[in-house]
Design goal:
Elements: H1 2-31, H2 37-58, H3 62-72, H4 79-92, H5 96-109, H6 114-126, H7 130-143, H8 148-160, H9 164-177, H10 184-194, H11 203-223
Length: 224
């Protein structure tokens, strides 16, 4: 019985000692921080924010992802990476105005980035600013003649702008340069929908039509 009481006594004393050591350790650290420790903690926290944002993005919860990307941006080393992902999140959430602001800022920093230029042209189109989008795509197609994506997107915008003649010309260019492009069939169908097929009239049918017209004119003369 006495041994049991002694064991409880010493366990209690040991717990008190551990608590005091932890308390003193925390207090000392608070007053005497390790050089660079704060920066390390902040960077680790920013990396965690980025990881959480990526997870939300993968789940399609773009509003939550945006929140954490903005938190990650507080770390200057992660700023541009988080900012790019923020813009993409805005676009995926169809917040075209905020997405455009982000991509415009990134493009000022990296003027020759083709992917950003294509994304910005697409965003303009989704905002309903078709003329601006069309002008960008026209430039991109001219400057990047071997890129099928820019040509495909340009054709899409031309259809949206109801410029079917121009769309047909660019579609012919797509067929000539990128004959195996998977979008060709869809564009052909779209063109057929907006333009009814032309009816071929052979010589015999043409004569019958003229004959019918003459008979109609003679009947009208008799009536008059």
């Amino acid at each position: 019985m006495k041994r049991t009481n002694c064991a409880h006594f010493f366990t209690g004393i040991l717990s008190c000692i551990i608590f005091l050591l932890l308390f003193l350790s925390c207090s000392t650290s608070a007053h005497l921080p390790v050089p660079g420790e704060s920066a390390t903690v902040n960077r680790s926290l920013s990396i965690e924010y980025m990881t959480i944002a990526d997870a939300y993005n993968d789940l399609g919860k773009y509003d939550k992802a945006c929140e954490y990307y903005m938190l990650a941006m507080k770390n200057k080393n992660l700023y541009w990476s988080a900012y790019y992902k923020l813009g993409r999140c805005y676009a995926m959430a169809k917040n075209w105005t905020e997405a455009r602001k982000v991509y415009q800022k990134i493009l000022k920093r990296d003027k020759d980035n083709l992917n950003i230029q294509i994304s910005l042209a697409y965003i303009y189109a989704m905002e309903g600013r078709l003329e601006t989008s069309e002008n960008i795509y026209e430039y991109l197609v001219r400057e990047n003649p071997d890129n099928p994506d820019t040509l495909v997107n340009y054709i899409d915008v031309l259809f949206a702008s109801e410029k079917y003649d121009d769309a047909e010309k660019k579609l012919a260019e797509l067929k000539e340069k990128f004959s195996d492009n998977k979008n060709i069939e869809a564009f052909d169908k779209k063109l057929a929908e907006v333009r009814p097929p032309e009816v071929d009239v052979d010589a015999e049918d043409a004569e019958n039509i003229v004959s019918d017209e003459n008979e109609s004119e003679e009947t009208n003369e008799e009536i008059l």
